[in-house]
Design brief:
This protein is mainly α and 135 residues long. It is 82% helix and 0% strand. The chain is built from 2 helices and no strands.
Length: 135
């Protein structure tokens, strides 16, 4: 019986040792798969980072171009607003001058030509004079 008990203890010890080796082998395999997954993930993330950096560079380049164009348009707008202001001032002064000076007698020798020879204004001629004052 001692022999059977000793065999049984030795047998359990061998089975435990084999079980531990198998468990260690599975653990190493899990660790290896985990490391491969991490390497793969690192590769994907590096690729994604490279793509994002390329996109950032492209967008930054577009932003610089748009900022330059925006500044150019702002400058042009400012110049046009100044020019419009000057034109409005000139028109205002011209209208003021026309309103303050006595009307010149006009004579229409032809429907298309106006001469300053004197004569009365017809209603059509008054309309022409009034519309020319508005512009």
């Amino acid at each position: 019986m001692e022999c059977a008990a000793a065999y049984s203890v030795e047998d359990r010890r061998l089975r435990r040792m084999m079980s531990n080796r198998e468990s260690a082998r599975r653990s190493r395999m899990r660790k290896q798969r985990h490391m491969e997954d991490l390497r793969s993930r690192v590769g994907r993330l590096r690729h994604e980072k490279r793509n994002l950096l390329d996109q950032i560079a492209a967008i930054s380049g577009c932003a610089v171009v748009l900022q330059h164009e925006n500044q150019k348009l702002r400058t042009e707008s400012s110049a046009l607003l100044h020019r419009l202001s000057v034109i409005r001032r000139v028109l205002f002064l011209r209208q003021l001058h026309l309103l303050s000076s006595p009307p010149l007698p006009l004579h229409f020798s032809d429907k298309d030509s106006i001469s300053c020879l004197g004569g009365e204004l017809s209603s059509g001629e008054e309309h022409i004079r009034a519309t020319s004052l508005m512009t």
